[in-house]
Amino acid sequence: MRAMVFDCYGDPDVMSLRDVPVPEPQDGEVLIRVGYAGVNPSDTKVRSGESARYRYREVKFPFVVGRDGAGVVERTGSNVNGFRPGDNVIAWSATDGKTWGSYAEFMRVPVKNLSPMPKSLSFAQAAVVPVASLTAFQALFHAEKGGMIRGQKVLIHGAAGGVGSFAVQFAKSAGLLVAATCGSQNVDYVRSLGADRVIDYKTEDIGRAIRDWSAEGVDVVLDVVGSTTLPHSLDMLRPGGRLVSILTVTADGDIERDRKEAEGRGFRKITVIIDFERARDSMREITNLIDAGLVRVPPIEMLPLEDAARAHQMIESGHVRGKLVLKVADLWFYLGLRQRHMLRAMNANVKLRKSRQLPPETARNVLVIDVGGTHIKVYPMCRREPVKIDSGPAMTPKKMIRAVRTAVEGCRYDVVSLGYPGPVVHGKPIHDPVNLGPGWVGFDFQKAFGRPTQIINDAAMQALGSYRGRSMLFLGLGTGLGSALIVDGVLEPMELAHLPYKDGKTFEAYIGDSALKRRGQKKWTKSVFDVVAKLKNALQADYVVVGGGNARRLTNLPPHTFRGTNENAHKGGVRLWQPEGKRPRATTSHAN
Questions:
Q1: Which of 130, 122, 76 is nearest to 101 (CA)?
Q2: CATH 3.30.450.20 for domain 2-126+297-338
């Protein structure tokens, strides 16, 4: 199996990709085929030797780090109940310093460190859940730690990271009042998580902001970053309050001295590490919150396994929003038929000929919005040409709403179709777009527009407008790589962009917009032809439609491939609202 192994402590470059034997599960253990590995600050501290230096954890070399993983049960050891080969699971590795972690194609874990994967998440999203969510959940609610109850107030210091993001949402789901700190660039994101008071630590005095927000202080200060970054935390507590600090190993100050100082002033200072004996019970509650839609995973940035050193460098910079994940293996092609159907179900299949949100006879004026990483195209029924709005990393949903309202001023519309540049499950985006600003997940578009609104993946909307029967694969050659498949009138949004293609890189890395600029027209075109052929054969499509802004750069097209038009996005948005029996046959412009 492939694994990122290191033989001594040191900087990130001590890790190297090697071929090593697959471990065998022992009594009470399960062997996991890893799809994605979450990257945690603790991974970097084990690799660098800081954990050993502070006598927290030493390892036996050679070693593989990685606390979080998501994948499929490969096989089990003896005396294992509740899991069987083929089950989708999340795992948190043992902490004995001998058992290898998740930066490998296989990892063995004690069955107590295993939980069914949340049904609403992809493998990549699930990989960031275990350690960050368990830390936040137990810190807030376990009686011997935060012990918080409805109506109490909490300050979460460091709310934009993985633990902090979960903590804000857990707190709000439990009826707590939440103040949260973060840097200027993350204020909108933390506010979107539900925090009642967001404090920009770069421009505000945290202590003064807390006193203005809650004169009597807060019941709990949850310090995710380290006590050395919040020196006057006790001053923010009400009498009898608790200072709960996540053990960072390197920024914890003098724990015993701080504990005595807190007790001397009538407070409690508690240092938190995960209670692994109760972790499965905690994870069961966390999974229920996630699958109920009350908690979403933090934004994720994905890197290939061989870029683990780069991921550690990013973590050590101290300013990662959300979580990093390493793509270890492509489980889509590995999984059997049963699991593939489960994954397809998570993509929220959309029937082409059904629409239940509005009676067909009233859905006459459809406002179609196609959101892209470079531009947002708005198709009001009252105008012949679409309105193009510049987008980019600063574009948030609120800014988009304002710009769209200006663009369609004076135009009547009854319903809205929104093409979204990312995965959409049950009509809702599940993570913020890579090339846009924050705040898209959880935003109430229907309330903002004041009209019935359907949200669909942008590639799926273009596919819907391009479809002309049988089995069709749509590939959107834009800023990234969009994809959708339609088989016999059933639309299935796909996420093919980040699957591995060649030399450890993804399809998007070869045919996305950055690849065109980096590799040049000739090499890019050659890769497009190869990717189209491979995906067409793998998905058994009768034909392929290529759309997006870069489709026009193809002078010739691969066999059985047609070029879509910008009008197809508009056509697909209108078709979302058409009733059964009245949907016209889809057309596409032919260009061979």
A1: 130
A2: no
Helix (H) / strand (E) containing 494: strand 490-494
Contacts 24+ apart (CB under 8 A), 470-473: 470/542, 470/543, 471/539, 471/540, 471/541, 471/542, 471/543, 472/541, 472/542, 472/543, 472/544, 472/545, 473/535, 473/536, 473/539, 473/541, 473/543, 473/544, 473/545
Reported as a single tens digit per residue, the pLDDT across 165-188 is 999 999 999 999 999 999 999 999
How far apart CA 586 and CA 103 sit, in angstroms, is: 46
How far from chain centre, in Å, is Cα 534?
A: 27
Location of each CATH 3.30.420.40 domain in the chain: 351-575
Instruction: Find the range with the poorest average confidence among 41-50, 193-202, 418-427.
Output: 418-427
> Residue 347 and residue 341: Cα distance in Å, rounded?
10
In terms of C-beta density within 10 A (0-12 exposed, 13-18 middle, 19 or more buried), how is residue 284 classed?
A: exposed
Token duo for residue 447: 């309330």
Domain with CATH 3.90.180.10 in the chain: 2-126+297-338
Q: What are phi and psi of 369, to 5 degrees?
A: -125, 125
Q: Which helix (H) or strand (E) holds 69?
A: strand 68-76
Beta strands in 410-468 (DSSP E): 415-420, 424-425, 428-429, 453-457
pLDDT at 286: 96
Q: Which two tokens stand for residue 101?
A: 């972690």
Angle of CA points 52, 57, 63, to nearest 5°: 90
Axis-axis angle for helices 162-173, 130-141 (nearest 10): 50
Angle (nearest 5°) at CA 157 between 204 and 193: 95
Architecture of domain 133-276: 3-Layer(aba) Sandwich (3.40)
Give the tens place of pLDDT for each residue, 218-245: 999 999 887 666 768 899 999 999 999 8
pTM beyond 0.70: the answer is: no
The DSSP code for 384 is S
Distance CA 568, CA 573 (A): 8
CATH number of 351-575: 3.30.420.40
Residue 207: which H helix or E strand, with range?
A: helix 206-213
| Paired tokens of 30 | 């399960």
Distance between CA 140 and CA 86 in Å, rounded?
34
Nearest-angstrom CA–CA distance, 509 and 355:
36
**Residue 488 neighbours by CB distance under 10 Å:** 8
Q: Which amino acid is at 43?
A: D
- Which structure tokens are listed for 312? 């550690």
Q: Cα 333 to chain center, whole Å?
A: 21
Using 50, 70 and 90 to split pLDDT, how confident is the model at 498? confident
> How many CB atoms lie under 10 A from the CB of residue 58?
15
Burial environment of residue 184 by CB neighbours within 10 A (0 to 12, 13 to 18, 19 or more): exposed
